[in-house]
Amino acid sequence: MSDSDHILFLLSSIFTMLLIFILIKRKQSRFNLPPGKMGWPFIGETIGYLKPYSATSIGEFMEHHVSRYGKIYKSNLFGEPTIVSADAGLNRYILQNEGKLFECSYPRSIGGILGKWSMLVLVGDMHRDMRIISLNFLSHARLRSHLLREVEKHTLLVLSSWKENSVFSAQDEAKKFTFNLMAKHIMSLDPGKPETEQLKKEYVTFMKGVVSPPLNLPGSAYRKALKSRSIILKFIERKMEERVRKMKEGEKDTEQDDLLGWVLKHSNLSTEQILDLVLSLLFAGHETSSVAIALSIYFLQGCPEAIQQLKEEHLEIARAKKRSGEMELNWEDYKKMEFTQCVISETLRLGNVVRFLHRKALKHVRYKGYDIPRGWKVLPVIAAVHLDSSLFDQPQHFNPWRWQQNNGSRGSASACSSTSTTANNHFVPFGGGPRLCAGSELAKLEMAVFIHHLVLNFQWELAEADQAFAFPFVDFPKGLPITIQRRSLI
User: What integer is the mean pLDDT of 460-489?
Assistant: First the structure.
């Protein structure tokens, strides 16, 4: 190619790019888009949006954009034009119109690592069917008859290993508890066994990749996670083959009560669909619950009044059980944990384990005079609503009493409820609409039982300063190091 040809090619390329830019701008000008800026080509403002910040705040990026543009603004995030919403009304509108005006739309890299049949990325009828399977397995009856007992068993297993005056990571202990619990429920894996520990090791590598940049390069966390994903799926598939063989040979399946056995007997899912379902439930059931438990330990150590009221509530339950001669907690005991539910709600509101959701507009939508064009990404930011001072008084302050039914003063014996104030209509730690987290009740049960045994048997304090950060996933950089003192209140 001659120099003149090179110049002509360059000029034509520049002209084409300018034409595309003009067409996009002209298309956008037809809409009354919210204010905002699109940032750099392709990457937009993604780097600034994902910059780590304190989990009890919305971060400098969001604060700057909301103060400058308002609670609804446009941006370019994750390589796509996006409407970002810190507006409680719009967020609720998005969740209520799931599958009608909006649908789930996570970045392709998430589907690549969790699997195309993962509940997190599925939409429409397939998501509904997968969710029904999960809800059947996590039914209210099963929570009462089986899961409560298992949750308590695994709680005591972890807490019994805590050594007095030693320093250990509360975050790692919470992860150990939730992983062992989910591994048992999903595939009947016993804690401490070689195969369970090997699976846990691969899962840790897998998780590091899920929350890392999607760079499929040699040595990257994402590449290592893809390898661990393959190992985990082969492990699950071997378990499936063992179950199918037993079923064909008429052997009694002693593990049929777990999720894997339930799915094999009660669904028509393909092998690939079952593998992705099991992996996604292991991910969802382990990661979010463990972070929530770690957050509760962190917030409570800074609020002695809350710990004292928890002690009184759980001591009353424990004494009643001692008088009756019972050992294990039952559903009636769980329902008595009213202030504990306040602590759980406040932990989820202030800590915001799930910061924001990924959605896409299926149709042209107009809201409060602004246009949301069809095909644009929409990010409802849950954390921004939970930390909105117009909805919650002193939103960055840990105050479990705000959830009491009479919204009364500290120390009130009133029951706690997640529907006690008008602001609670916008309290959505587990999402909402047709995609409401199927494991929400199990997560609250895990937190309540863990707190019950924690406050009755231990007092704790931070061994080193640490706090939760959003990366945007929530994590304690130092692992939340604590020291404990054993005690017995009964």
Answer: 92
Who contacts 211 (Cβ-Cβ below 8 Å, separation ≥6)? 471, 473
Strands 359-361 and 458-462: unpaired
Q: Is 199 exposed, middle or buried (0-12, 13-18, 19+ CB in 10 A)?
A: buried
Radius of gyration of the chain (CA): 25
- Check residue 66 and give its pLDDT: 96
Task: Report the Cα 352 to chain-centroid distance in Å.
Answer: 8
Q: What 3-state class would DSSP assign to 367?
A: strand
Tokens of 475: 């994590």
Place of tokens 């940032």: 39
**pLDDT number for residue 414:** 47
User: Which single residue is written with the structure tokens 């190619």?
Assistant: 1
Contacts for 186 with CB less than 8 Å, ≥ 6 apart: 258, 259, 260, 278, 281, 282, 285
Q: What is the pLDDT of residue 410?
A: 52
CB 350 within 8 A of CB 383: no
Query: How much of the chain exceeds pLDDT 90, in percent?
Result: 57
pLDDT tens, 257-282? 788 988 888 888 899 999 999 988 88
**In DSSP terms, which residues pair with 72 in a beta bridge?**
85
Retrieve residue 292's tokens: 């929530």
Structure tokens at 241: 């083959």
Burial class (CB in 10 A: 0-12, 13-18, 19+), 69: middle
The CA angle 342-406-380, to the nearest 5 degrees, is: 55
What is the rounded average pLDDT of the residues 284-299? Answer: 92
Q: 36 by DSSP, 3-state: which?
A: strand
Contacts for 58 with CB less than 8 Å, ≥ 6 apart: 66, 86, 381, 383, 384, 387
Cα–Cα distance measured from residue 260 to residue 188, given in angstroms and rounded to the nearest whole number: 9
**Least confident residue range of 116-120, 305-309, 386-390, 464-468:** 116-120
β-pairing, 80-85 vs 377-380, is parallel
Residue 120 has a pLDDT of 83
Nearest to 370 by CA among 68, 82, 102, 73: 73
